[in-house]
């Protein structure tokens, strides 16, 4: 499902956080938003997911403005997992994942055979089979995050929005979450837009990167064209060494601050 962001301006109250943001996400691709704190990444994701209303501009799904799509219909097409999410700790993993089927159940009060199949598949994809009856409160941070991802998978979205899904997780858990996202994208063709802070993780899993600065898009494109010493100096104010893997993936090692040196 094609996603288009057109001339988007948005923020909170009188504070402008996004100013003229435009880009297109190709159907079936993984696009990651990168940038320093406060540049507007999370705000952009919330506007795309219709959690916030833009001051001007539009977001289109296959040519149709999201603000003109009925809520139930939109929930069957697009799922968003915000950076902060809450649920009763007494809920089990299975109960949380089942919430993802609500947009598909309509007036039905009980889960159908199809609902159960999708819930089971989502739990299996996130490797939570052994934990499906466990209350959320008993899980580790990585296990809880996988449960929330499983809930969004159960929604069967065509577009998945993820706001910092790996934050506060150890390195192994970060790779597990990204592996699930990549599997969902490659096997089921789900279009993914996410916010990450780890530049190397983003470069390794994304088809395109969007680098943001001062509430605008600084540059966008394949990882090799975005992860450059100049871009990292201008956006993050760091000096870095860049190496490229045999697969053409750029990896950076920060070597120091460039603050005060950016021209």
In short:
This protein has helices at residues 41-48, 71-77, 93-98, 102-105, 113-125, 141-154, 171-188, 199-205, 223-226, 229-236, and strands at 3-12, 15-25, 30-35, 56-61, 64-65, 78-81, 159-163, 191-195, 208-213, 216-221, 238-244, 250-257.
CATH class of the largest domain: Alpha Beta
**What class do helices, strands and sheet pairing give?**
alpha/beta
Major beta sheet, strand line-up? 6-7-8-3-9-10
Helix content: 25-40%
Structure overview:
This protein is α/β, with parallel strands linked by helices. It has two domains: 3-226, Rossmann fold (3-Layer(aba) Sandwich), CATH 3.40.50; 227-263, no CATH class. 34% of the residues lie in helices and 29% in strands. The strands form three sheets. The chain has a six-stranded mixed β-sheet with strand order 6-7-8-3-9-10, sandwiched between helices. The protein has a four-stranded antiparallel β-sheet with strand order 2-1-4-5, covered by helices on one side. A hairpin with a 2-residue loop joins strand 4 (56-61) and strand 5 (64-65). Helix 6 runs parallel beside helix 7 (171-188). The protein is globular, with a radius of gyration of 19 Å. The model has no long low-confidence stretch (mean pLDDT 91).
Write the layout of secondary structure elements.
Blueprint lengths: L2 E10 L2 E11 L4 E6 L5 H8 L7 E6 L2 E2 L5 H7 E4 L11 H6 L3 H4 L7 H13 L15 H14 L4 E5 L7 H18 L2 E5 L3 H7 L2 E6 L2 E6 L1 H4 L2 H8 L1 E7 L5 E8 L6
